[in-house]
């Protein structure tokens, strides 16, 4: 059963002493491994894994994670906030937090937990999550935690090797793990996988231009059929959808970062800041600078 509470997490750094990462006397332990080479061509894979045990109060805040997180709680309890909702996790539960979301966590009244966090990446990851019904944050009750523990240990061993030749095994285990989670939260979808993949490709990696005709050909669809089906399902053309996504990310940068207008334009693949400002104004109704000022004051 999914546990949710519509309340904010209110913790200040000052509430915790400087020793909240103290590793002495078993207060805190952590081991982790991340891949260091570029694997963006793969559809989905585990890029990192972290095992941690804590027996003292702690907190953590991530503004915008590039990874999709799958957090498994094997002992104790912890509380997360993601997508504006609070999720209480207890023993033998898991939480999925899709990439790009702001999140935070904190220990509960009894500050003890043992958890494993899986960090996922992949060019088709958003579409795969949507297919499995895991594209929104949610708590899943795990009836056979030992099966997930085995897969997590196998992934940890592969990640420790840091061997590109082990990627097929990594991808296979990652898909098995996601499919196993989907058994606990199956959400049917009527969106064809090809269009889910297209939506994923169009909504990110803005520094690289996307040729709509080439994307349709890659998905083995005639361009006219691709445009028509995309519009029928998502109520927007592929080109306008990408533009809208880029503007939405620009808003996030303007509100949540200190990057200059020129730096934001460069991050989003615009040829120059002038073109970015014009496109932003036509979509939002005000300049990027004005948008930043209004939202900073609100």
Low-confidence runs = 1-19
Structural Rg: 21 Å
Mean pLDDT, all residues: 83
Helical fraction:
25-40%
Distance between the termini: 37 Å
Sheet with the most strands? Answer: 10 strands, antiparallel
- β-sheet strand percentage: 15-25%
* Total of helices: 10
Tell me the series of helices and strands, N- to C-terminal. EEEEEEEEEHEHHHHHHHHH
Name the shape in a single word. globular
Number of DSSP strand runs: 10
User: Structural class of the secondary structure composition?
Assistant: alpha+beta
Question: What does this protein structure show overall?
Answer:
- The chain is α+β, with helices and mostly antiparallel strands and 298 residues long.
- The chain has helices at residues 125-132, 145-161, 167-182, 193-202, 212-218, 223-234, 238-256, 261-267, 273-284, 288-297; strands at 4-5, 28-34, 45-54, 59-62, 68-82, 85-90, 93-97, 103-107, 113-121, 138-141.
- Strands 1, 2, 3, 4, 5, 6, 7, 8, 9 and 10 form a ten-stranded antiparallel beta sheet that branches.
- The chain is globular and about 55 Å long.
Quick recap:
Helices cover 40% and strands 22% of the residues. It is of the alpha+beta class.
Entry keywords:
alpha+beta, 298 residues
Which helices and strands, and how do they pair?
Blueprint lengths: L3 E2 L22 E7 L10 E10 L4 E4 L5 E15 L2 E6 L2 E5 L5 E5 L5 E9 L3 H8 L5 E4 L3 H17 L5 H16 L10 H10 L9 H7 L4 H12 L3 H19 L4 H7 L5 H12 L3 H10 L1
Antiparallel strand pairs: 1-6, 2-3, 3-9, 4-8, 5-6, 5-7, 5-8, 5-9, 7-10
Helix pairs in contact: 1-4, 2-3, 7-10, 8-9
């Amino acid at each position: 059963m999914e546990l949710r509470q519509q309340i904010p997490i209110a913790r200040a750094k000052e509430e915790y002493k400087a020793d909240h990462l103290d590793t002495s006397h078993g207060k805190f332990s952590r081991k982790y491994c991340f891949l260091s080479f570029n694997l963006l061509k793969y559809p989905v894979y585990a890029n990192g894994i972290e095992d941690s045990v804590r027996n003292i109060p702690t907190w953590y805040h991530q503004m915008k994670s590039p990874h999709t997180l799958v957090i498994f709680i094997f002992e104790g309890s912890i509380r997360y906030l993601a997508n504006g909702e609070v999720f209480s996790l207890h023993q033998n539960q898991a939480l999925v937090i899709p990439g790009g979301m702001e999140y935070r966590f904190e220990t509960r009244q009894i500050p003890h937990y043992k958890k494993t966090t899986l960090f996922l990446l992949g060019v088709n990851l958003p579409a795969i999550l949507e297919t499995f019904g895991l594209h929104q944050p949610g708590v899943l009750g795990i009836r056979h935690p030992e099966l997930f523990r085995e897969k997590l240990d196998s992934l940890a061993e592969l990640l420790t090797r840091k061997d590109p030749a082990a990627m097929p095994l990594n991808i296979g285990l990652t898909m098995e793990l996601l499919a196993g989670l989907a058994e606990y939260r199956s959400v049917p979808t009527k969106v064809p996988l090809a269009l889910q993949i297209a939506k994923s490709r169009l909504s990110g990696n803005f520094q690289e231009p996307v040729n709509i005709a080439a994307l349709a050909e890659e998905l083995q669809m005639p361009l006219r059929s691709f445009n028509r089906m995309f519009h029928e399902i998502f109520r927007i053309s592929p080109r306008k959808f990408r533009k809208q996504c880029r503007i939405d990310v620009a808003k996030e940068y303007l509100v949540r970062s200190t990057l200059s207008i020129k730096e934001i334009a460069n991050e989003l693949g615009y040829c120059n800041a002038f073109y970015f400002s014009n496109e932003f104004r036509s979509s939002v109704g005000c300049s990027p600078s004005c948008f930043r000022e209004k939202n900073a004051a609100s």
